[in-house]
């Protein structure tokens, strides 16, 4: 049995995702496709536009066979831990044979060389990296600069230098500037770290770039769809016709789920009030204990707290050359979810396989995971979580709290406000079965 795993957010699911899913299945000749999907909060430090069950339904309607939740501890972390958590989760199903992911350019051997360098950190590379950090660069920029210098000065001429001969081949700097390539490198690094037999199966990205908010191309980005909704829908009265400009950007089934979504769409600024409260009430020492934090950073945050207007504007106010907007947003999210710096050391990889949804035709896949997987398979959460080790229950508690917070914010934004009884605990929410 061939099974391909894909690590995704689908925030929301669009035609580019459908293309990637279909091409990956064709390329690997897979019998089944498993998605390790972020839940209600995503890697850039923000809430997902739609809740995890609606995005699961999109994925299942558009070609996925099984959707597993990537625990929020990993889903809300840096690219390294996001990728490592996703690869570990798929590896521990015991059935995944291929890993599908997107790339911006056809340079898999180069990305594999970069992944090896980052994993083993040769002394020359480490020295260059540390010098860049001492010079005040952010870690992503310091790492990119160090890789460029290392490959130029300490490796044999290969694909990197050939870019000067072949003008169609991207430079190393261009390769490292793409979010999809950065994630691809982290996936390859994780596969090497785990000595996994899973085969990497990249697909060349089509259409708009990751951050491109233009809707002119046939394959527009999820960022473009979110930007449209934030401009024309968020906080305003709307009907189904409001979404019509997105109709040709999403598969029909996914568009129908989006345009008939019964809840408010959420953005980071919807969580501004609780974050402002934490900034005002917690000490520098407490704030410094959250993941992605540091004493110097939270000292600045406390100093600037009186100027807090919203989540996004506060990140814009605080960002610098060596502290990116995304890191700041992730820190605020970790504050919101009480994710501490030691959490990733306590939980280096997922402790369970939580099913969000599956297709009835994938019953043999679920049976294979039950017999071959190395982690508990949670289909009925209330039933299957009984007897789990305390550490696994602690990791699960982050997901449960994140879901409650997400639903509470949805209810607060509802018009008229939803009753508290409308919050459906993850223990009571049924797994989707199509």
Briefly characterize the structure.
The chain contains 21 helices and ten strands.
Please describe what this structure looks like.
The protein is α/β, with parallel strands linked by helices and 434 residues long. It is 49% helix and 10% strand. It has helices at 15-28, 52-61, 72-75, 79-91, 108-120, 123-134, 139-153, 159-162, 172-176, 179-193, 222-232, 252-259, 272-281, 284-287, 295-304, 311-318, 325-337, 343-346, 363-372, 381-384, 390-413; strands spanning 3-8, 32-38, 41-42, 46-47, 66-70, 98-103, 199-204, 353-358, 377-378, 432-433. The strands form 2 sheets. Strands 1, 2, 5, 6, 7, 8, 9 and 10 form an 8-stranded mixed β-sheet that branches. The chain has a two-stranded antiparallel sheet with strand order 3-4. Strand 3 and strand 4 form a beta hairpin. The longest helix has 24 residues, at 390-413. The radius of gyration is 21 Å and the shape is globular. The model is unreliable at 157-168 (pLDDT under 50).
Question: What low-confidence regions span 5 or more consecutive residues with pLDDT below 50?
Answer: 157-168
Q: Beta-strand percentage?
A: 5-15%
* Terminal residue distance: 22 Å
Number of helices: 21
**Largest sheet: number of strands, sense, barrel closure:** 8 strands, mixed
Q: Say how many strands there are.
A: 10
Quick one: overall form? Answer: globular
Summarize the amount of helix as a percent range.
40-55%
Q: Rg from C-alpha positions?
A: 21 Å
Mean of pLDDT: 91
Secondary structural class: alpha/beta
């Amino acid at each position: 049995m061939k099974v391909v795993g894909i690590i995704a957010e689908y925030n929301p699911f669009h035609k580019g995702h459908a293309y990637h899913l279909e091409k990956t299945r064709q390329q690997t000749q897979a019998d089944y496709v498993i998605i390790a999907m972020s839940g209600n909060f995503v890697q850039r430090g923000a809430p997902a536009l739609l809740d995890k069950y609606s995005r699961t339904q999109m994925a299942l309607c558009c070609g996925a066979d099984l959707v597993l939740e990537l625990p929020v501890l990993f889903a809300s972390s840096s690219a390294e831990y996001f990728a490592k958590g996703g690869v570990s989760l798929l590896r521990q199903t015991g059935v995944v044979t291929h890993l599908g992911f997107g790339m911006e350019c056809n340079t898999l051997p180069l990305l594999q060389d970069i992944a090896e360098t980052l994993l083993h950190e040769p002394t020359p590379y480490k020295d260059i990296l540390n010098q860049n950090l001492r010079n005040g660069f952010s870690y992503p920029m310091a790492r990119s600069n160090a890789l460029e210098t290392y490959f130029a000065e300490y490796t044999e001429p290969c694909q990197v230098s050939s870019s000067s001969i072949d003008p169609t081949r991207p430079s190393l700097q261009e390769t490292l500037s793409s979010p999809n390539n950065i994630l691809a490198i982290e996936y390859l690094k994780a596969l090497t770290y785990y000595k996994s037999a899973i085969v990497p199966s990249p697909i060349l990205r089509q259409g708009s770039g990751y951050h491109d908010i233009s809707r002119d191309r046939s394959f527009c980005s999820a960022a473009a769809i979110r930007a449209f909704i934030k401009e024309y829908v968020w906080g305003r009265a709307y009907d189904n016709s409001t979404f019509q400009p997105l109709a040709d950007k999403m598969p029909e089934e996914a568009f129908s789920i989006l345009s008939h979504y019964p809840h408010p769409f959420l953005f980071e600024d919807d969580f501004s009030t609780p974050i402002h409260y934490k900034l005002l009430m917690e000490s520098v020492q407490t704030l410094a204990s959250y993941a992605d934090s540091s004493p110097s950073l939270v000292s600045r945050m406390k100093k600037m707290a009186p100027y807090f207007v919203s989540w996004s504007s506060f990140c814009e106010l605080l960002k610098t050359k060596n502290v990116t907007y995304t890191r700041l947003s992730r820190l605020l999210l970790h504050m919101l979810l009480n994710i501490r710096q030691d959490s990733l050391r306590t939980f280096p990889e997922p402790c369970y396989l939580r099913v969000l949804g599956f297709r009835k035709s994938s019953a043999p896949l679920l049976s294979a995971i039950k017999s071959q997987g190395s982690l508990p398979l949670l289909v009925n959460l209330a039933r299957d979580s009984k007897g789990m080790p305390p550490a696994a229950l602690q990791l699960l508690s982050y997901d449960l709290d994140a879901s409650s917070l997400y639903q509470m914010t949805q209810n607060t934004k509802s018009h008229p406000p939803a009753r508290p009884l409308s919050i459906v605990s993850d223990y009571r929410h049924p797994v989707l079965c199509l």
